[in-house]
Please model this.
Amino acid sequence: MDAPEEDIVIARSRARYNEGYMPGFGNDFETEAIEGALPIGQNSPQRCPYGLYAEQLSGTPFTAPRASNERTWLYRMRPSVRHIARMRRIDLPLFRSAPTPDESGLPLAPMRWDPAPIPEDAGTWLEGMRSIATGGDVLTQTGFAIHTYAVTESMETEAFYNADGEMLVVPEIGRLRFFTEMGVIDIAPGEIAVLPRGLKYKVLLNGDAKCRGYVCENYGGAFSVPERGPIGANCLANPRDFLTPVAAYERRDGTCHGLTVKWCGQFHRCEIDHSPLDVVAWHGNYAPYKYNLRHYSPVGPILNDHADPSIFTVLTAPSGEPGTANIDFVIFPPRWLVAENSFRPPWYHMNIMSEFMGLIEGVYDAKPEGFVPGGMSIHNMMLPHGPDAEAFYKASLKDLGPERLTNTMAFMFETRFPQQVTRHAAGLSTLQAGYPKVWASLRNHFDPERRDWRGE
Model:
């Protein structure tokens, strides 16, 4: 017997949290900006609804295994073949691609920079991009490039797509809007966005006159959430907290738009008579997404010692070698420190991986002085690094009790490739020439007659 209608309760959407987005990581989504625009039961009907064109965007080879196969079907006003006529080469000399070997002219050393001021005329997303380091080779689709951006102008009638890699965006100052073919993503400091290879989009100011942040351009396999292993099914970056936008489009026929393409490290541009952001509906699993870093659920040692930084991995891009990343995105968020009789900051180490660090807000516990929001550092492969002298003595001699780290959000791009510093980064006035001096006051405390050292 059917239940009475008054006994049926239907859940409401959690619109306060994810209005305009669909939750989940790597899901097979479907969305339409006009009801009935999405074909049902097939991908490419003889005639698409509303006279739209069906077009597939593939992020992997057609024959990739089902678990890793990425593709999305777009239903758009015009196919993308209308976007590439009469292209010409242009120069964006400070937006670089790997390799950039031996161009910095700097001796081998750990490096750290103060934040660079945002110029009043920084310009658009493309004009304000500055490459800091690269690794691998864009032509073999391995490795990465790390950039900073400064934005003071919206791309109102400009669009861009990157054929070389996906772009992970980490804001530090100001809010941005990414109007993409597949919908609108708004991000602010404390959030990230990932824009897949081949996706067309424009970048708009979103209430702030100036914006600054970091970008990791990943040439290799797409970012994914890391395996948890013995941690189990929960914690770290939970898939439910990733948000993919619902369909959105603009119809601006007769308005000239510039489209710039990054392809094999070179830039090409053409003008078209309409907006390329004209996708009315789409379905698939190859799509942009955002993530709030404050939703990260960290794990850590609850008895003794300090765990490897890999426990803070939000996203990882694989290489051909299992367990060795093309690039990892790692964060150091607010958290509790409770390890007993332990040196709690990161230990001194040398690593086969190379590390680029940035600071979004607050203070990083291993570098309380000289590393500020908007700054950055590079500790390359097999170069020693670790806490500065102030952090070492404070952590070694303090009375230990439960301690909550607050007012902090640092991140790291870690990679198996050496990070080759660009000529631009080497010439910045914000490069701290005396950075290695942060370890100069570490003393020799060894006394063979005294096993218990107490700071003497």
Summary: The first helix runs from residue 15 to 18. The radius of gyration is 24 Å. The longest strand covers residues 142-151. The mean pLDDT is 93.
